[in-house]
Design brief:
alpha+beta, elongated, disordered C terminus, 305 residues, 5-stranded mixed sheet, 60s Ribosomal Protein L30, Chain: A
Length: 305
């Protein structure tokens, strides 16, 4: 028989002492704070939306199911994921207006400098003064234009060729410092009258391109950095200065065009191409070989270009 048989069984129970309740008031306060912050940011977001976007938000909360069914997918822009809010559009528009105004004032200053040079040199008299009278400087929708216009007794090129006359080369050399000082990029555009160039496949587009190229080279030789030249463009008789008289002397000209900086196109003078020769013109020259202009001058003795 076991020794502990019949011994009393003693069960000891330990009494637990519960700690006092901490309470959950802080949770309620924190939840209120988070809710208030969410409401605040929602209000700020809605204030930045346009009227159309606000109407879309209102339509969704008024009838979520009906709104989603009746609205095509991808149609609604609530101002996120790349959408522009009204305040952002207003700010961008203001910045563009300021930039455009500053750009125009800068071109106005360039215009005044060039006009001052033309007036000063023109007052000295002589053959150079007569040619300077055919240099026109004006602001257009595209930008500032400096046009070297031919006329009666004023020729910037030899007849039917792209060879610049000595007087024209001197004028270009005098204008070059003003272009360098401006620091603005520009195109060199060639124009002819509507008189057809005869023979050999060499036409007015070729002639206007070659003349623009010749002026471009003269400008660079005169000290203008090549990075300021955006390219050369050949228009032939597509942009007549005097459409009423397509054969008029004034239609034969070379134009320097300093374009406005368009912030909406994300372009600036530094971002624009710096290749001084138009890619299209160079590609045309490499793909199609045409006879040089001087070889064809005798084929059209009566034509004036």
């Amino acid at each position: 028989m076991p020794m502990n048989e019949g011994a009393p069984i003693i069960i000891k129970k330990r009494k637990k002492h519960d700690h006092g309740h901490h309470g959950g008031a802080w949770k309620v306060a924190y939840a209120d704070f988070v809710t208030a912050m969410m409401a605040f940011f929602l209000v700020m977001w809605i204030m930045g939306l346009s009227d159309g976007e606000r109407a879309s938000v209102q339509g969704y909360f008024n009838d979520p199911m009906g709104f989603m069914k009746s609205t095509p997918k991808g149609r609604v822009n609530l101002g996120y994921a790349g959408g522009r809010s009204r305040s952002a559009e207003k700010g961008a528009g203001t910045a563009l207006a300021v930039e455009a105004d500053r750009d125009r004032r800068q071109l106005d200053q360039v215009k005044e400098d060039l006009q001052s040079f033309v007036q000063t040199q023109g007052g000295k008299g002589g053959a150079l003064a007569a040619m300077l009278q055919n240099v026109e400087i004006r602001l257009t929708d595209e930008g500032l234009e400096v046009e070297f216009i031919e006329g009666k007794g004023v020729a910037y090129f030899e007849l039917g060729s792209a060879n610049i006359t000595p007087a024209a080369r001197r004028i270009i050399g005098e204008v070059a410092p003003a272009l360098t000082k401006a620091g603005r990029v520009f195109f060199v555009d060639g124009h002819t009258d509507a008189r057809n160039y005869a023979g050999g496949g060499y036409d007015n587009f070729d002639l206007s391109a070659d003349r623009a190229q010749a002026v471009k080279r003269a400008i660079i030789v005169s000290g203008v950095p090549s990075k300021q030249v955006l390219g050369v463009r050949a228009f032939a008789s597509a942009r007549l200065r005097n459409p009423a008289q397509p054969f008029a002397d004034e239609n034969r000209r070379v134009t320097l065009v300093m374009p406005f900086r368009r912030a909406e196109l994300n372009q600036s003078a530094e971002a624009l191409p710096t290749n001084p020769v138009s890619q299209d013109t160079e590609r045309m020259r490499s793909d199609i070989r045409v006879p040089a202009a001087p070889e064809l001058r005798h084929a059209r003795p009566k034509a004036d270009h």
